[in-house]
Amino acid sequence: MTARDRLAPLLTVPLPDGDAPYVDLVEGRPGSRGRIQDLWESGGGAGVYDWVVGAGDRYGSHMPDLVGGGVFRDFYGVARRLDLVGGETVLDLACGPGTLTGHLAEGVGADGLVIGADLSPAMLTRAARAVTAANTVFARADAMALPLRDASLDAVCCSLCLQLVPDLETALTQLRRVLRPGGRLAVTVPAHGRGPFRAFTEVLARGGQARLFRRGEMADALVRHGFVRVTTRSDSVLQIVDAVAPGAAPPRG
């Protein structure tokens, strides 16, 4: 059974026919989500993002902690943060060019399933070309209305996505809905700079029409939505926060 076949029973919508590199589960094109999202929709923007995250993956882990090495290791170490041991069903929401998707595919092993989802066709085309693992399928999906059944996932990686959604509360409700009780969530969002850098990040946020998070804001939002064992690994330029879905005893670790 292919990864595409294994995806079908998890969906709330019919699986489209065809052999495209990704399955399109979004009707039409949603309205603009801001200038940054519009950039990621373009081939050029997707290429720049691919180069940046690829370089971080190759070199970031070699940086000392004093210059951000720990943040890089946590950002790319999503399989470790989600405590993957093999056989899990995992969603990589806002998978971009598939950099983190590849790490997740290794983490779940041959018996697991990774769903790389993004709203950008340009990103998905790159991701499907970069990650060809048999346990991985890519899908165009909207974080505001995930086309997945309730409690269908063991874990979700949501990196650099929530700053672009039109409504954070709706997106977090969707994440909690699709996670099984005790399922794990790994989130990364950009944050405002501290001190004199705050004015600079305010300008960036307005110019890119993206949300930047205040100190502790992402963790507080997850607690508000009922997540437990909320742990902030970084609260600097990147907020890296892990949590467990409520309703059952926490999994390992």
Structure write-up:
The protein is α/β, with parallel strands linked by helices and 253 residues long. The chain has one domain (3-26, 33-244): Rossmann fold (3-Layer(aba) Sandwich), CATH 3.40.50.150. Helix content is 36%, strand content 21%. The chain has an 8-stranded mixed sheet, with helices on both faces. The longest helix is centred in the first third of the chain and has 17 residues, at 43-59. The radius of gyration is 17 Å and the shape is globular. It starts with a helix and ends in a 9-residue tail after the last strand. The relative contact order is 0.14. The mean pLDDT is 87.
Essential attributes:
globular; eight-stranded mixed sheet; 253 residues; 10 helices; Rossmann fold; alpha/beta
How does the helix and strand content classify structurally? alpha/beta
Major sheet: 8 strands, mixed
Estimate the helix proportion, in percent: 25-40%
Total helical elements = 10
CATH secondary-structure class: Alpha Beta
User: What is the end-to-end distance?
Assistant: 31 Å
Percentage of residues in DSSP E strands: 15-25%
Low-confidence stretches: none
The shape is: globular
Q: Output the radius of gyration.
A: 17 Å
Short structural summary:
The chain has ten helices and eight strands.
List the helices and strands and how they pair.
Layout: H1 3-7, E1 23-24, H2 35-41, H3 43-59, H4 69-76, H5 78-81, E2 89-93, H6 99-108, E3 113-118, H7 121-130, E4 136-140, E5 153-159, H8 168-178, E6 179-190, H9 197-208, H10 217-224, E7 228-235, E8 238-244
Parallel strand pairs: 1-4, 2-3, 2-5, 3-4, 5-6
Antiparallel strand pairs: 6-8, 7-8
